[in-house]
Amino acid sequence: xxxxxxxxxxxxxxxxxxxxxxxxxLGLYALQHRGQESSGIVSSDGDxxxxxxxxGLVADVFKEDIIKNLQGASAIGxxxxxxxxxxxxxxxxxxVVEYADGPIAVSxxxxxxxxxxxxxxxxxxxxxxxxxxxxxxxxxxxxTSKEKTLTDRVVDALHRVKGSYSLVFLTTHTMIAARxxxxxxxxxxxxFRGEGERDAWVAASETCVLDLIEAEYVRxxxxxxxxxxxxxxxxxxxxxxxxxxxxxxxxxIYFARPDSNVYGHSVxxxxxxxxxxxxxxxxxxxxxxxxxPDSGVPAAIGYAEQSGIPLxxxxxxxxxxxxxxxxxxxxxxxxxxxxxxxAMREVLQGKRVVVVxxxxxxxxTSQKIIxxxxxAGAAEVHVRISSPPTIxxxxxxxxxxxxxxxxxxxxxxxxxxxxxxxxxxxxxxxEGLYTFFKGNDAGYCDACFTANYPVLADDNGKTPQLHxxxxxxxx
Length: 475
Ligand code: AMP
Description:
With 475 residues, the protein is α+β, with helices and mostly antiparallel strands.
């Protein structure tokens, strides 16, 4: 019924600020890496919700006149990412529906796994869906809840959905931020200090938003926490039993921006430590260490620092690659990668090279990069990956292919080395992921590397059924 269940997204909300929509726009701009398919903002002018959603990048979706039209002191926004499945404006968020007390809008990052069954129940009792996205279920559950107050309706709805969610809701007067009980996806709170008046509040996927809009970092929204922002300020509710969190470690490894602080730690410092640990675990004699930009850069710096091998940039990235380039009729070797990365002969000629990247998914990018490095003169190419082999799909909101397509799910490390054409290949150990936390691995989800799903999925993930609370005690 729903088109797909793996969605990476960005959420932002601002409450009580004279330029709310503009702040949300800037926030979405800072979070463009979390979703490039569509973008949207809904603002409240105190009487009605005003919405603009469109396919495309933030800078293309919002022009000055559109932002001006999104009036009011509160707004929420969303960037949606999708690599496959339906790319449709109907699935662009925030979603807006009417309930007894007026309109409510929602932005969601994560993946609800019981959405199909809930949608069926809701449709049988008369709800009319506008999209094929699982997120819309949440607003219909709020609209049809028997509870009286907005907050009780939201809490009631959240008790019925299963899966991962970092959410921001908006009504004409209230903004609500909520994170699922295991805290799979990040969500933080920031504040603009009121000068003599009330403070304004920000909720966002990552802290890099706060740096841009000059708001101060307050803290993470805690797993299972619901924060209500109204004229009275911020109120915290904890409607779920406390559980050991399952925060996505892949956010820290790859997905979040390195200048963000996620789960209370610096993403950049974490990635550098992964690189240092990788050098401790699998040192090799070489002339240069080089990153695959941008994702491999912090780990390569850490690797070079630890190993004493000089860091050099052998691969240069074109940052302006859109989806709409025209492919040449004539065959060009490694075209797909070359359009994004170019290898420098001046740096590589005759050199033994350590190439550092954060992960190998299908293996096709690494294969092309290595071919390109050799063609540009590298004498030896040693690949070092700053995370363990990605063996299992994510059911909690990171876009990963199925088991069959994950190269590490079907091949040994040496099989992968041979496929990508490297002289040597080494991954970080699972323990290595946690040296930054002094070996403490409690509170993180690393199911993509271990298949140890903190909440269980049935029949190989075709219909993930998360048994949320039964599974909590496993960790
Ligand atoms: P490949 O092995 O060719 O599938 O691609 C590996 C590259 O994809 C690495 O450089 C990673 O940084 C990057 N990567 C890892 N996970 C994801 C993801 N969920 N979405 C997009 N790119 C990713």
